[in-house]
Amino acid sequence: MRDRLSFYKNEYKLLYGINNIFKNSLGPKGKYYIIKYFGRYLIMYETKTLLYFLFNKSTYYTHILHEILIHAEEFQDGVKYILVVITEILKQINNRQIFYNSKIKIKLLTILKLILKFVSKASFLRSRNLDIKNLYNQKKFIRMLSRSDIIDFSRDFLSIVSTLIYDYYAKSIDTNHLKSINIINLRIDKSTKFYILNGMIYKNVIKSYRKFLNNTKIAYIKQTNSTFRSSTLRYKEKHVFSKLLMEEKIMYIDLMKIFQNNSINCLLIYKTISDTLLKFFEKHEIIILQPSNVHILTSILSLIKAKSLQTFSENFEILVGVARCIFSRRIVDNNYTVIKQYEYLSNKKCMLVNFSNKGFYMMFKIMFFKLLSILTIARYKTRLIIAGGLLEIGIIRYFLNINYKNKNNDNLLLILLDSFAVIPFELCGDTILSRNKFIRKNNCKDCWLNYSHYNMVKNLLEIFFIKWHSLKTIFLILSRFLHVN
User: Fold this and answer.
1) Could you count the other beta carbons within 10 Å of the beta carbon of residue 420?
2) Which of 205, 169, 163, 198 is nearest to 184 (CA)?
3) Are 143 and 156 in contact (CB under 8 A)?
4) 35-81 pLDDT, tens digit each
5) Which one of 137, 146, 410, 433 is least enclosed by Cβ atoms within 10 Å?
């Protein structure tokens, strides 16, 4: 009798929590909604929509929400993931009338068991022969990621996170140096773009915050003995000093004649230059472009196809190439973050991300780190799928539409998953890897967002443990649901 009373009390609490989903929103257009059950839970608008669907379509709704909230209390994550999969399965149940067909009911339970097996055991399957484009009707949501597919994945992820992710690490710009930093976009031709990160166009050369230059001839001066001195000459003997200055001015005049005769309107340098030379270039409206490191400098020279120019001078050699246009943008906001590349990658993609507030910036760093953790696995495995529950939906649809006659369910699962590199087996179980073992297996580098190896392993384990336990919750809910009905 007491158990029955306690059950009704919990049922009342649960229904009270359901009603408060819609009453306690943070305004009519608020992003978050509150459930009052085991406390206060904030849910996103999409999650609220899924709950609303279940509330109208399923008589088993209170039991589903009860299991989901228990899961949320224990793991604090994975609620939307569970709702996405369960909603899709309930749609399949309604469409196929599973209540009246025991064979389909058994089939669905078998599929759920196979999905659990997919997470726990099918971990080192590698193959590129199987075509699974028709696995899910809306296949644009399924991200098949290999080493060559990371760029394509980055473009798709751009619309979601509003930034480019391509194996970068995030770093804040020191606000003290904001006034002297520019982001220079160098377009070589119609198909090639080149971003010079932390490069700068000298302030006294450009008069406005933005500079756009078409059909640019870029010159790089090599082997200059005294041309590019950043410091002023200081000699005790006045005649030696004046003689050197005269030689330097003659050299500058010769240099400017070469620039005018060859229609050169941009100078590429790596080190700082003297003030006198800077005035010469400013007078003749020549842009001075300074990349942030040597690798970018060499990459620019190769992209513009720089060739040596005959100058009849022993002091310097000039390399000249052509670019379609140069665009410079000044940084004036404190809430900008630079996404820098790793040294071992090509210097072709860089991006500047603007954050409206610090809270969003911190949230981005956490999301960014988790994504990099997944990309680490993608680098060492053949393929990886990031689908947020849609992969499981694809598997369910796939298995519901195929014929089981004379086929082994386990073999079908292996064939389906043979095109993926799934989560490493060690990260799926309940055992926690030691720090050294994880580093040895994955060859991780301690340079991402200043996170230690311990934090990286911890975050990876959290991601996959939540996925594993979320699938267990899904299986628990639907197995009870099917047995009850």
Assistant:
1) 23
2) 198
3) yes
4) 544 455 556 555 666 666 666 665 666 677 777 777 777 766 677 67
5) 137
Residue type at 172 in one-letter notation: S
425 contacts 121 by C-beta, under 8 angstroms: yes
Kind of pairing, strands 266-268 and 287-290? parallel
Two tokens, residue 198? 């932390």
Q: Name which of 246, 236, 164, 220 is nearest 197 in CA terms.
A: 164
CA angle 258, 261, 263 (to 5 degrees): 100
Cβ-contact 67, 31 below 8 angstroms: no
DSSP state letters, 400-455: HSS--TT--HHHHHHHHHTT-----GGGTSSPPPPHHHHHHHH---S-STT--HHH
The bridge status of strand 40-44 relative to strand 143-145 is unpaired
Q: Do the Cβ atoms of 339 and 353 come closer than 8 Å?
A: yes
The DSSP call for residue 179 is G
- Identify the residue whose tokens are 């796939």: 398
State whether residue 236 is helix, strand or coil. coil
What's the Cα-to-Cα distance from 413 to each of 102, 121, 417, 427, 476, rounded to whole Å? Answer: 22, 11, 6, 20, 20
Summarised one tens digit per residue, pLDDT across range 364-413 is 455 444 444 444 444 443 333 444 554 455 556 655 665 545 455 555 44
